[in-house]
Design goal:
The chain is α/β, with parallel strands linked by helices. The chain has a single domain, classed as TIM Barrel, CATH 3.20.20.70. The strands form two sheets. The protein has an eight-stranded parallel beta barrel with strand order 2-3-6-7-8-9-11-12. Strand 7, helix 3 and strand 8 form a beta-alpha-beta unit. Helix 2 runs parallel beside helix 3 and helix 5 runs parallel beside helix 6. It starts with 11 loop residues before the first strand and ends with a helix.
């Protein structure tokens, strides 16, 4: 991903430590990125599907539960559908997912070429997500700076395939799948760290997300190879930490 002073630069901060400067982006992941805007961050909106999937409030109230060190949910991709999105916020990232090949292909040319795009390639609360090599290559060609969001256990062969198609940024990761829903928070960080170390050796840039509640959490991910970071459950678990996190 180009690091020049373009609209990708919005949201970057500088960390001064040990006489070094680290350029980093902090993203606000869905669902909070749909509603919360903080100075010094970039919102990720979505995740949007081709068709409307109602029930956001119901599934949030039904399934969002605190667990030790994090949260569990079965919300899935509850959203208003891609046709209700105007793509006018040029500094925001728009996350999409096709639930079948038709949806991936239908969304490809519906989304304006200027869009900062994330392809959500995994979600534990959706039965199956797949995208053909041809469709993935078409997205990479149309959106050369797209982000691919993946599970922590994605095989190296799949990472290499994405990189060969042109993917420069990997977002790791989606929640841990369980029969009662996806788990985020400390447990996710524990499984993310070794996998981010592995993935960061194969792709230009990694966004790390999962269990970031303090600057130490970000440093742990940075030492594992992450360049950027995404926050989510801190906004409900420890919202009083957010301002301090953004100042670091």
């Amino acid at each position: 991903m180009g690091m020049g002073r373009s609209w990708w630069y919005c949201g970057y901060s500088n960390i001064f430590e040990d006489d070094r400067i680290y350029n980093r982006m902090i993203y606000i992941s869905p669902p909070f990125g749909n509603y919360i805007s903080l100075q010094g961050t970039t919102r990720i909106r979505g995740t949007f599907t081709y068709y409307r999937r109602p029930g956001l409030v119901y599934h949030t109230l039904r399934s969002l539960r605190p667990i030790r060190g994090g949260w569990r949910n079965q919300i899935g991709f509850r959203n208003k559908g891609i046709h209700a999105v105007d793509f006018t916020e040029l500094t925001d990232v728009y996350s999409i997912c096709g639930l079948n090949e038709y949806e991936w292909n239908a969304m490809l040319f519906h989304i304006p070429k200027h869009t900062k795009l994330e392809l959500n390639l995994s979600c534990p609360n959706v039965p199956t997500i797949s995208i053909s090599d041809d469709a993935m290559q078409a997205y990479c060609n149309r959106f050369p700076d797209l982000i691919a969001k993946v599970r922590y256990d994605i095989p190296n062969t799949e990472i290499d395939k994405l990189v060969d198609m042109g993917v420069k940024t990997i977002h790791c990761s989606n929640t841990i799948p369980t029969p009662k829903g996806g788990i985020s928070g400390r447990q996710l960080k524990e499984v993310n760290l070794p996998n981010i170390e592995r993935i960061s050796k194969r792709v230009k840039r990694v966004i790390a997300g999962g269990g970031i509640y303090t600057f130490t959490d970000m440093k742990d991910y940075e030492q594992a190879g992450a360049k950027d970071f995404s926050i989510s459950t801190i906004l409900i678990s420890k919202p009083w930490n957010v301002s301090g996190l953004l100042r670091t």
